Amino acid sequence: MDAAKTRFQIAGRRFAGIKAIIFDMDNTLFDFVEAKLAACKAVAEALGGDAEELLRYFARDPTRFEGHANIAEYMAEKGLFEEARYSEICSLYERVKLESVSPYPGIREALSSLKGMGLRLGVATNSTPTNAVARLKRTGLISYFDAVVAAESKDEMKPKPNVVERALDALGASPGEAIMVGDSLTRDIAAGSSLGMLTAYAQYGDRNISEARTEIAPDYVLRSVNDLVLMLEKRDLGSFYYPPPTVETMNPCPDRLVGIPCSLGWQPNATSEWQGDRTG
């Protein structure tokens, strides 16, 4: 029996064995694109130029999304690069970016509810360890998590499963006992799926800034983080259907009832208890 089919059968057992939830961080717990745009606006005001143009420099390569080299290249192409000025601009960029990070509405309440269910919570991020801790402290979210795992190098970045595997180990959970939650289909959902985890796509946070739509399909689509709470409180979503979803069967999911599985042939019961918080 292959991993995908096993994953769907696990889901049909009311999440009975789920012990842990692993979250991506940026654009899953908070709107990081808006924070970066605010930082780019500050840089553009200081240098002259266009904030969205600078943001596109960061979006060219997901593995360099945090890199100051993007600022250097932007300054050089504008004929503005000076070493002292570059250091000053990088400091401005980092300060404004961190100051602009704030949790999505309902995140604290959702994390508190999940903890109240006895679940262990973790973060698995492509950010650096220093940035991960700084942002989680800034947003006041760090106390909710039992483990925070960040990529030590590009070789550990999702969609490679390294950080997710380390988070599972830290939480004492196997892939079949955890759900991976993230806004990126090609990174978060792909990493979780490769390990045989259930996956929940944080559609509310997907700005799709640096990736094309993909054939990768999640097990669930979340319109808000509260949908995850509703799913786990309900603890009974009926049977899953095999084969696993394709893009064609996944795309309608955001327009259906919240927190539902995206498996082929799923016919949810339209009951009011599924009408959760639709805010991002």
UniProtKB/TrEMBL annotation:
Q: Could you tell me which Pfam families the record lists for this protein? A: Hydrolase
Tell me one GO molecular function of this protein.
Answer: metal ion binding
Which biological process terms from the Gene Ontology are attached to this UniProt entry? Answer: small molecule metabolic process
Domain of life, source organism: Archaea
What the entry lists under InterPro entries is as follows: HAD-like_hydrolase, HAD-like_sf, HAD-SF_hydro_IA, HAD_sf
> What's the cofactor?
Mg(2+)
Record keywords, A-Z: Hydrolase, Magnesium, Metal-binding
Family to which the UniProt record says this protein belongs: Belongs to the HAD-like hydrolase superfamily.
By what name is this protein known? HAD family hydrolase
